[in-house]
Amino acid sequence: MRVGLDVGGTKIDAVAVSPSGEIIGRLRRPTGWGDDAVVESIVLAVRALAAENAIAMADIGSVGIGIPGLVDVESGRVLHAVNLGVESLDLAARAQAELGIPFRVENDVKAAALGAAVLRGATGSMAYLNLGTGVAAGIVIDGRIHRGSRGTAGEVGHISVDPRGRVCGCGQRGCIETLCGGGALAKAWGRSGALPVKDIIEAADAGDADAIRLRADLHHGGAAAVRVLVLSADVDTVIIGGGLTALGPRLEDGIRSALQADAETSPFMRSLHLDERIEMLPAGSPAAAFGAALVGAAVPEKEIVFHG
């Protein structure tokens, strides 16, 4: 039995995966803040998942964790996970000491890319574009995470596409994240609300000029991310996931329309058929936690196995 945990700033999404690759249990629990609380919440999530699904702890062969921040995959150390209050944490070693189960740790977006590849039956090359509070991406080629020389392959959020655009948290102007990241859009919107991006879309539908402009940024920013991923890595498919997928067709159709509009004046871009190469994960997909389970299994020859 394999367990996968998607550790976010507020919650942990945990899944139990059978040897045949079937998700047989899933739960969500709050995430702690700071080193000790993060480790404790992970340990409690594994134990709760086992208890709720009548799984003996001795039957869990591995646990994989997808977590924000910089991850040293070999050591299982997490660096600069600012949304969790973690600066440097030997996560795999500490969690393994608590439960006596092998742990592996991976960046959350890379884990999600792996999970999305399996859940969507992707073959060949695929990019996973995460549109949430921020913007990030991971690439999977022939069933393996493609990291690049320093682990940043596919990270498109901080590619500047407008040097006179809004200032990004990274210090540049006009990064893709400033256009289609939920946090940047909420800041630009500047109005109170629990779901600011949803509010922007609804206000745009009602004719609000500021909202119409920000909605266009969202769609064109997503299109720019797709374009960069295809032009730089020549992936077959870009699968879009993350919190903004809750917008459903209002996000997918908008990005597709932006890609089509951008291709109207360029025979080269038309030849790439970018609008036909995007897919959306359904909202609430377990891709990140499922991918973490696959990472935890650490299959030597290939990091994923495709299941029918």
TrEMBL record:
InterPro entries: ATPase_NBD, ROK. Pfam families: ROK. SUPFAM superfamilies: Actin-like ATPase domain. PANTHER family: BIFUNCTIONAL UDP-N-ACETYLGLUCOSAMINE 2-EPIMERASE_N-ACETYLMANNOSAMINE KINASE (PTHR18964:SF149), ROK (REPRESSOR, ORF, KINASE) FAMILY (PTHR18964). Belongs to the ROK (NagC/XylR) family. This is ROK family protein. It comes from Microbacterium galbinum.
